[in-house]
Amino acid sequence: MTARMLVDGVASTQVSALDRGLAYGDGLFESIRFVGARAPLWSRHMQRLAEGCARLRIPAPDPAQLWREALEVSHGMPASVLRITVTRGVGERGYVLPAAPRPTRVVAAFAPPLVAAGAHAQGLRMRVCTIRLAQQPLLAGLKHLNRLEQVLARAEWDDLAIAEGVLLDSHGRVISATMANLFAVVDGELLTPSLDRCGVAGVARAEVLAACPQTQVGELTLAALRGASEVFLSSSVRGILPVRSLDDCDYVPGATTRRLQQHWHDLGFSMEQGE
Description:
275 residues; alpha+beta; D-amino Acid Aminotransferase, Chain A, domain 1; D-amino Acid Aminotransferase, Chain A, domain 2; 2 domains; nine-stranded mixed sheet; five-stranded antiparallel sheet
């Protein structure tokens, strides 16, 4: 996959081997869907990035500068995914924080990922992953650079008919999919898992919660998920994706899913985003 890339504002594909993002995963990233020169969820991404930098004590980049660089690397692309990576920068060996960190900033534009034909209309097939997410409240919700749990989860299957996997925590509670947040309609109520122990608090999830303030955020068991009347995923890159099956459980895309897909379209994204 080729990309247009700026490293600290300069066209490059290289960072220092001493960068703490490489050495320790000491940083954050955002994956932002652009439609031409528009990014409908840009402000939510910038808010999450700023909050993550504050929690990790990394000096936050200037959003105006990031916007200029995003437009530069995505220029001429009718649709793209911008990845913004911010690390603590180059540092001495060891875990001690640099006294005066100089963060590394990488802004790269990629072509949008392909989504299976019909996925937005008919839904995805999913499986329950074996790996369990570790609990660390200090990092919960952050989109930090260490994604090894997700990498190993995705390595559990190679069946092309399965598009996603459900991730549980060490207590067996449903947390998310490998690349998206998860919602379920259970007994007529819209539910989504709490992310105060682990998981990534997605930007699309925040948009769904704003659009549906009645959503219940809390514990979601696998049994409740299997018994849901509808299940869908939210992703800032892929949009609102219905789930048609989870292992041997089948679902039908319902009214809540369709309403949120329309909301996504009204934001300025294609209904068939990524296909």
